Amino acid sequence: MNLLHARIPAGTADTAPMVEARAAFLSSGAYAPLENELSRVVSGTAGLVVDAGAGPGHYLSRVLEAAPEAAGLALDVSAIALRRAARAHPRLGAAVWNLWEPWPVGDGVASVVLDVFSPRNAAEFRRVLEPGGRLVVAAPLPGHLAELGDLVLSVDERKEERLETALGDHFTRVSRADVVHTAPFTARQVHDVVAMGPAGFHLDRDDRRSRLLAAEGRDVTLAVGVSVWRRKDA
Ligand SMILES: C[S@@+](CC[C@H](N)C(=O)[O-])C[C@H]1O[C@@H](n2cnc3c(N)ncnc32)[C@H](O)[C@@H]1O
């Protein structure tokens, strides 16, 4: 669909190997419980769903399946990721955009803003949401991917507090569901979940490669909080 380009800050965009790994990992179904929760929350929404930091558009396309009256807009600073997103669903448009700049979206036009593991610009979330619109945030909980140790970034124990600080001026939380699911990861899933994050840059180091192999077949925990917020003035 549409692909619009804007100024890109250096060093923030996911690279081609990271995007490939993310797309492969998400397609494997390893995070299906998270997809299901996001689809449940957004199901039945009509109007515009903006996915802030949509990456390859995996979650937005799943959510659009559950909301047949909705159209999606994927925003991300990675053109490589958005090329995938633009093809992910027929009701999905995509704009390469820095989330810290004013978004290419009118005031009060979005029914839902989705943010899954991505930067949070609370003022823009608020501006683009219609009165009564909902902000849906997915953020890792302590214990997320814990079995992989320092192969992945550890979760900040004060993440919840930071979420409240980042959003609390503009939004009130109306619900939160914790998605916690433990299952064995295949070697490919272990590789991809590491390669899709910042630690992926060091995968060629011998010590890391052998630790990745050792993690094959190990149970790994998905632990993500999905919270729903409404504008304070709505
Ligand atoms: C952890 S990934 C999550 C992607 C997607 N939501 C998912 O869960 O598959 C974070 C995403 O935010 C994007 N990103 C990081 N900084 C950004 C910025 N300033 N503006 C727009 N996108 C940004 C990255 O390119 C990446 O796609």
Give the strand tally: 8
Distance between the termini: 32 Å
Mean pLDDT across the residues is: 90
Helix content: 25-40%
Rg computed from alpha carbons, rounded to a whole number of angstroms: 17 Å
Keywords, please?
single chain, 234 residues, Rossmann fold, 8-stranded mixed β-sheet, 8 strands, globular, binds S-adenosylmethionine, rRNA_m1G-MeTrfase_A_prd
Concise structural overview:
This protein is 32% helix and 28% strand. With 234 residues, it is of the alpha/beta class.
Q: Helix and strand layout, with pairings?
A:
Elements: E1 3-4, H1 16-27, H2 32-42, E2 47-52, H3 58-66, E3 70-76, H4 79-88, E4 92-96, E5 110-116, H5 122-128, E6 129-140, H6 159-167, E7 171-184, H7 187-195, H8 206-214, E8 219-231
Parallel strand pairs: 1-4, 2-3, 2-5, 3-4, 5-6
Antiparallel strand pairs: 6-8, 7-8
Helix pairs in contact: 1-7, 2-3
The structure holds S-adenosylmethionine.
The site of S-adenosylmethionine has 21 residues, from helix 3.
Explain what the structure shows.
- With 234 residues, this protein is an alpha/beta fold.
- It has 8 helices and 8 strands, in the order βααβαβαββαβαβααβ.
- It has helices at residues 16-27, 32-42, 58-66, 79-88, 122-128, 159-167, 187-195, 206-214, and strands at residues 3-4, 47-52, 70-76, 92-96, 110-116, 129-140, 171-184, 219-231.
- It has an 8-stranded mixed β-sheet with strand order 1-4-3-2-5-6-8-7, with helices on both faces.
- Strand 5 (110-116), helix 5 and strand 6 form a beta-alpha-beta unit.
- It is globular, with a radius of gyration of 17 Å.
- S-adenosylmethionine (SAM) binds next to helix 3.
- GO terms for molecular function: methyltransferase activity.
- One of its GO terms (biological process) is methylation.
- Keywords: Methyltransferase, S-adenosyl-L-methionine, Transferase.
- S-adenosyl-L-methionine binds at residues 31, 144.
